[in-house]
Design goal:
The complex is a heterodimer. By secondary structure, chain A is of the alpha/beta class. Chain A contains twelve helices and 13 strands. In chain A, 36% of the residues lie in helices and 27% in strands. Chain A has a six-stranded mixed beta sheet with strand order 5-6-7-3-8-9, sandwiched between helices. In chain A, helix 11 runs antiparallel to helix 12. In chain B, helix 3 packs antiparallel against helix 7, helix 6 packs parallel to helix 10 and helix 7 crosses helix 9. In chain B, 77% of the residues lie in helices and 0% in strands. Chain B has one domain. The chains are: A alpha/beta, B mainly alpha. Chain A: One of its GO terms (cellular component) is plasma membrane.
Chain lengths: 322, 268
């Protein structure tokens, strides 16, 4: 992925803490986002993702810690931060009877140097809905309008919370392309998601937040490499194999036998060791599959320790990938 | 504000431009809200047309057009003109505006606006301005139709009348703002609005003009914001400058209610 943080960070969050009453929602979160980076915040529901970005947007006042956007405090310098930061909020609506055109015109009038909303609307497939009232839009159209409103001020940073929720697969892919174009134009993107494919496809780096803390912060590839068992291989051996012998190979996580089909989870090293063993024994591996772990696996490994309820989720996920 | 040494010069330099930009943003919000207000035919009917319609219906009753000895030679229709003026205010302030404001809050519209250089308070201010404008139109329509159709003389003390109308309008909008501030949901605001609507109509004299009420009841009603305003309007209609007591009661209510609304209003 291009353009990692090279210059001074445009978003700095350090030691951010926020509690609602007795409940601490964000507990000492720190990260920095470089200009032009697509930075993902990934985490289970209720992990504190939205609260974290709301502090970046200046919608919430942190209990403690420091938040800076382009060196400005989003609360104290709210006026200046809103000029350079565009937001798409998770749950917000517009006036039921405002039309798409009116909303785009109104919002672009708030900014010093707005983008031309027409090409933006066209890029988001809203051109034939410009006269439609907000209440008459489909969920996906509303979502695309909010993305347009986040970009209409020509921001240096956009914060997108649950970007593609409610979009169909085609619109989702289009939106991902748009985000990549936006970044190519030098805009920094802070992306909140619980959608792995989206994070893997778009993000340069990802902070995995769990229970208000950062559980991991790395590139998608780095996170996948941290999965307990990054590779899953499965095959039907031409002759019986001793599971104990397989389990003794380096890096093996688990060995399973599903009606004659052997499934081994482990590392790259495991894959090589299994192949060497098969060659030495003169056993051929029918229907051989080797599947790399996905961000899903890494995510579940990172967040499962303190959430045992997700155990089942992980098993289905790895079974599905294998 | 942090680090005054670095922020002060920049802030001072940017200040006049910022103020101009804020004014531009407010005007844009106001224009947009005005367009949306025009798309609410039901609200427009109840605020703009209904008070006049009610006055016309009452005016069609022959007895109401006869001078009444008990009313000092005035006709019932003469007393109903100020009442109809107040009715438009109550509908706008208590029935319509709190619903709009709580909807803007509940649906995250205020919140969305607070992530832009515009302020959510601009939306509230625009709503107050538009409702006040609708009230003014409604009042002018009542006065014009009353004059033309029933020869109700225009207020003989126009300055006092305008002052009383302004105070009453502020009082009705302040009641609405307080409802919007204290009610957490749209449903609650609508329920409270309806509950408050009827006593306010009563105190404004919609069912029986305040002057015709029995002495004790009249004294009580004169302590309410619209009861006092109603009497002030009557005085001004008849040619006297409204009593300072009536104007004062309404003004105190305005101050108290607006402070309460500002104190308890929740942005989300």
């Amino acid at each position: 992925m291009p353009s990692q943080a090279s210059s001074a960070p445009i978003i700095e969050v350090s030691g951010l803490t926020k509690a609602y009453g007795e409940r601490t929602v964000v507990d000492g979160v720190s990260f920095e986002v470089g200009e032009g980076e697509i930075f993902g915040i990934l985490g289970p529901n209720g992990a504190g993702k939205t609260t974290t970005v709301e502090c970046v947007e200046g919608l919430r006042v942190p209990d403690s810690g420091r938040v800076r956007v382009a060196g400005l405090d989003p609360v104290a310098d709210h006026d200046r931060v809103t000029e350079l930061l565009g937001s798409q909020l998770q749950e917000s609506e517009l006036q039921a009877k405002i039309t798409v055109r009116e909303a785009l015109e109104l919002y672009s009038s708030f900014y010093r140097t707005p983008a031309d909303w027409r090409p933006l609307a066209e890029r988001l497939g809203l051109t034939d809905r410009l006269g439609a009232r907000f209440a008459k839009l489909s969920g996906g159209q509303k979502q695309r309008l909010f993305i347009a409103l986040a970009l209409v001020g020509n921001p240096r940073v956009v914060v997108l919370d649950e970007l593609t929720t409610g979009l169909d697969p085609r619109a989702r892919r289009d939106t991902w392309e748009l985000i990549e174009e936006v970044r190519a134009g030098g805009v920094t993107v802070l992306l909140v998601t619980h959608f792995m494919e989206e994070a893997q496809r778009l993000c340069d780096r990802i902070a995995v937040i769990d229970k208000g803390r950062i559980a991991a912060l790395d590139s998608p590839e780095g996170l996948i490499g941290r999965a307990a068992n990054p590779s899953v291989m499965s095959f039907v051996p031409s002759a019986p194999l001793d599971p104990a012998e397989l389990a003794a190979l380096p890096g093996v996580g688990s060995v399973g036998d599903k009606r004659g089909r052997i499934e081994i989870t482990g590392t790259d090293e495991t894959v090589n060791a299994v192949i060497t063993l098969l060659v030495r024994r003169g056993i051929t591996a029918g229907q051989l599959h080797v599947v790399d772990a996905t961000l899903d696996d890494a995510f579940l490994d990172l967040t499962e320790e303190r959430t045992p309820a997700d155990e089942d989720g992980r098993e289905t996920a790895s079974a599905a990938t294998a | 504000m942090s680090a005054p040494t670095t922020t002060t010069p920049a802030a001072a330099a940017a200040d006049p431009g910022d103020r101009r930009r804020r004014r531009t943003a407010f005007l844009a919000v106001l224009r947009s809200e005005a367009v949306l207000f025009r798309r609410e035919p039901a609200a427009l009917f109840w605020i703009l047309a209904f008070p006049t319609v009610l006055m016309v219906i009452l005016g069609l009753i022959p007895a109401f057009r006869e001078p009444d000895e008990g009313l000092g030679g005035r006709r019932v229709i003469d007393l109903y003109v100020p009442v109809a003026v107040l009715l438009g205010m109550i509908t706008a302030g208590v029935q319509v505006m709190p619903g709009v404001l709580t909807t803007y809050r509940e649906r995250g519209i205020l919140r969305r606006l607070s992530t832009t250089p515009a302020r959510p308070s601009m939306l509230i201010a625009a709503q107050v301005v538009l409702h006040a404008a609708a009230i003014a139109l409604s009042a002018l329509l009542v006065l014009a139709v009353g004059r033309i159709a029933f020869r109700v003389s225009l207020p003989a003390q126009p300055v006092g009348y305008v002052l009383a109308v302004l105070l009453a309008c502020l009082a009705a909008l302040a009641v609405g703002a307080t409802i919007a501030a204290l009610c957490r949901t749209i449903k609650m605001a609508q329920a409270v609005g309806t509950v408050v609507f009827f006593p306010m109509m009563f105190t404004a004299g919609v069912w029986a003009p305040v002057e015709t009420l029995p002495e004790t009841l009249r004294r009580i009603v004169e302590c309410t914001p619209l009861g006092a305003a109603s009497q002030a309007l009557n005085d001004a209609a008849g040619g006297d400058f409204p009593g300072l007591l009536h104007l004062g009661v309404t003004a105190v209510w305005v101050v108290v209610l607006l402070s309460a609304a500002a104190r308890w209003f929740r942005w989300e």
